[in-house]
Each structure stands twice: as C-alpha cells, then as structure tokens.
C-alpha cells in the first residue's frame, strides 16, 4: 500500500515539475522607446539668392593738397543678388549711403555716395569672405554749390549667416574720384561699415 502511494506521489511530482519550471521563466523586458532627437538648426551654407539690408559706419575723406578733408558717420541701404557655385560665390550689389562728413572750413560736406559693384568670394559655410569692385557716384556741397562726380570703388568684406534668412557682416571700401566735378581736386574716401541683411 505504501509502495503504491509513493509511486503515485512520485508521478504527481513529476507532472508538476513542468508547471513549476515554467513559473521560473523571467518575462522578456519591454523595449524602451527612445524619443527621436530634434536636430539643432544649422544655418545654410548656400549663399544663392537675393537680399536687402542696411549698413552704418565711419567714413574718412582726403584730397590732393588736403583741400577737402574730413571724417564722420555714413550709412544707408543696400540690395543685391548672389550665386553660390560651391566654394565660389559671385554676385552684384547696389548701395546708397547718406553721409554726415564735413570736408572743408566753409560748410563743405560729402552728402551721399551710391555704388554698383560686383562681388566675388569664398563660401566657408556659415561665413562668406569676399572682395568687391565697381562704380561709385558721390554728391558733395563745395563752396555752397552742389557737385557730383563718378568714380570707382574696391573693397573687402565678410558676412556671417545667423539663420537661413538673416546675416550680419562688415565691409571696408576705398573710393576714388579723379578731378572731382572738374575742380582739379582728386577725392578719396574710405568707409568702414557694419551690415545686416535679410535674404529671400
């Protein structure tokens, strides 16, 4: 009788082992959901397109014989268009500055300067370094008479992209007006300006 009971107990124990063993299996961990990283904004390196902006800075005027010399503030607006060819950027720009520069002892002043220039530069990603050359026209009041003359300009500058729309920069330009308005005086003007522009 005891032998039969023992055999029955052993069989029951063996039948229960798979269930108990199954109870020892650890559940698989749930996969963790990693939120997708939001990429930081990187300003575009493509400088192609039109732009319009403003500039403000300092101007220094000298002349042959020191007849018309002076310095002061100068600022205005500009607009242009550029094409980005990879490492090279080319374009054209027109600008107009109003000046507050006394260049004589009798109320002589440099009143304004307009320019139409070509631009060639290097695309360094967020930064554009360039040189410019073009035509310039200056208006001045000399001896109580309004005078104007055409000349040329050349300069260097750099722009930095704050975003795909806004840029800031700086530019240095030299201007030359030979025999200004037939006065026999050669007029030179150097400008140093900070710039801001909106690209479209």
What would your notes on this structure say?
The chain is mostly beta strands and 200 residues long. The protein is 11% helix and 59% strand. The protein is built from one helix and eight strands. The chain has one helix at residues 2-23, and strands spanning 49-63, 70-84, 88-102, 109-123, 127-142, 145-161, 166-177, 187-199. It has an eight-stranded antiparallel β-barrel with strand order 1-2-3-4-5-6-7-8. It is elongated, with a radius of gyration of 38 Å. The relative contact order is 0.18. The model has no long low-confidence stretch (mean pLDDT 88).
In brief, what are we looking at here?
With 200 residues, the chain is mainly beta. It has one helix at residues 2-23; strands at 49-63, 70-84, 88-102, 109-123, 127-142, 145-161, 166-177, 187-199. An eight-stranded antiparallel β-barrel has the order 1-2-3-4-5-6-7-8.
Secondary structure layout:
Blueprint: H1 2-23, E1 49-63, E2 70-84, E3 88-102, E4 109-123, E5 127-142, E6 145-161, E7 166-177, E8 187-199
Antiparallel strand pairs: 1-2, 1-8, 2-3, 3-4, 4-5, 5-6, 6-7, 7-8
Structure characteristics:
59% strand, single chain, 200 residues, mainly beta, eight-stranded antiparallel beta barrel
């Amino acid at each position: 009788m005891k032998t039969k009971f023992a055999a029955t107990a052993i069989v029951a124990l063996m039948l229960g082992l798979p269930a108990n063993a199954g109870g020892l299996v650890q559940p698989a961990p749930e996969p963790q959901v990693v939120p997708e990283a939001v990429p930081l904004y990187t300003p575009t390196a493509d400088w192609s397109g039109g732009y319009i902006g403003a500039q403000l800075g300092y101007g220094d005027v000298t002349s042959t014989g020191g007849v018309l010399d002076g310095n002061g503030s100068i600022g205005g607006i500009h607009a242009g268009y550029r094409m980005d060819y990879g490492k090279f950027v080319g374009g054209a720009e027109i600008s107009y500055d109003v000046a507050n520069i006394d260049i004589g002892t009798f109320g002589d002043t440099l009143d304004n300067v307009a320019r139409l220039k070509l631009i060639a530069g290097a695309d360094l990603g967020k930064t554009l370094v360039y040189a410019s050359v073009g035509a310039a026209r200056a208006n001045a009041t000399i001896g109580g008479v309004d005078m104007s003359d055409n000349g040329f300009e050349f300069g260097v500058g750099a722009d930095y992209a704050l975003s795909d729309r806004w840029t800031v920069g700086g530019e240095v330009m030299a201007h030359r007006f030979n025999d200004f308005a037939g006065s026999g005086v050669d007029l030179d003007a150097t400008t140093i300006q900070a710039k801001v522009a909106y690209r479209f």
